[in-house]
UniProtKB/TrEMBL annotation:
Site feature location: Essential for prephenate dehydratase activity: T176
Domain Prephenate dehydratase residues, every copy: 4-183
Keywords: Amino-acid biosynthesis, Aromatic amino acid biosynthesis, Lyase, Phenylalanine biosynthesis
Native source organism of the sequence: Aequorivita flava
Protein name: prephenate dehydratase
Enzyme Commission code: 4.2.1.51
GO molecular function: prephenate dehydratase activity
GO CC terms, sorted: cytoplasm
Amino acid sequence: MSIKIAIQGIESSFHHLAVQKLFPNNNVTLMPCDSFNKVTGTIANLSADFGVIAIENSIAGSILPNYTLIDRENLQILDEVFLNIDMYLMALEGETLHTINEIHSHPVALQQCKDYLMRVQPHCKIVEGKDTASEAKKIRDGNLKGVAAIAGKQVAERYGLQILDSHLQSIKVDKTRFVVLGRSTEASPIAANKASLKFILDHEVGSLSNVLQLLQTFKINLTKIQSLPIPEKPWQYAFFVDVLFEDRTFFSEVITILKKTVEELKVLGIYKQNLENTPSNLAKHIVHGE
Ligand SMILES: O=C(O)C(=O)C[C@]1(C(=O)O)C=C[C@@H](O)C=C1
């Protein structure tokens, strides 16, 4: 039995690499989607067991629409993984840096390489595509002359393109955080030490500061805070935070207090921090029915 995992993009994209890191020993059926929207929809309508989506890149920043998608579809963050990203310029055999006049890639990938594009290829037309790998495949399938794609090295190998330039990202160390999404309402892992929360505050002086102080009191470490506008309420914001906790009881107490004090609270996931990129245990539930 295989696990069905929806990703944005096709085989060899960075999302595919993230799935391979998370589920290296499992029989995975990849469900390629051409937008993040379709990934979350595919999980919500039960077609996929899980989905993997990028949530933040160290150079390009948060992929903001993905926060809204997780929230809107009522999905749970079940796991995470961090990929080192290295960007390459690739095109058909025989092309050189001087014959290229158009460059395609995923918008977040283009953003990571914007210094390179301005410095080395300022004359090129930049085209935002669906994902790194499908843009490269398009060049191969359509025999597109004068067109290059920005993608990972594995994409050049998979789709038979020639590498014209390497390490294009603006900062050498380039990392993307991906999260595994599911519909699961099952108990979070016993070893969980991280949570993603969304809260909305009333417009009182100090309401955000009170929440931060509460976290401090209970020794809960805030690792990320992101505000997003609430479209129905102009100039009001929802806060999306990631927190690390050592003591599960303290964490539960904080949740109880927050529920009473903030206007709205939603737990988007309780999982184990995974800086070491340990393979996920989630497949067990699907394959063995545990
Ligand atoms: O197009 C791809 O290969 C992707 O997996 C998408 C994506 C992203 O959404 O951030 C993934 C990792 C990199 O940061 C660049 C692009």
